[in-house]
Design goal:
- The protein is mainly α and 88 residues long.
- Helices cover 84% and strands 0% of the residues.
- It has one domain.
- The longest helix is centred in the last third of the chain and has 31 residues.
- The protein is elongated and about 50 Å long.
Length: 88
């Protein structure tokens, strides 16, 4: 439960901060970041109700997909920041 709460705060805060620092993010960055951050944090919430799911292949696949989406979103955010910085 604690990990769920901390992840929601950390990923939620970073996602909001990203949108505030760089408004008008392209959807190719915003969607993976938002969906990945939400599902990544919520994966811990699922385990509070069903701890046996941790080893289930479907749960693991969801967590891997969520992590990949979050990573793509943050990498896309950094790339967009560099692009905007270079444009001046």
């Amino acid at each position: 439960m604690r990990q769920w709460h901390l992840d929601l705060i950390a990923l939620g805060g970073l996602t909001v901060l990203a949108g505030t620092a760089m408004p008008g993010l392209p959807s190719r960055v915003a969607w993976p970041l938002g969906v990945g951050a939400w599902t990544n944090a919520m994966a811990f919430g699922v385990l509070t109700a069903w701890p046996d799911l941790e080893d289930h292949p479907a749960y693991r696949a969801g967590v891997i997909g969520s992590f990949a989406a979050t990573s793509m979103g943050f990498v896309g955010l950094a790339a967009e920041g560099v692009h905007r910085w270079r444009r001046g």
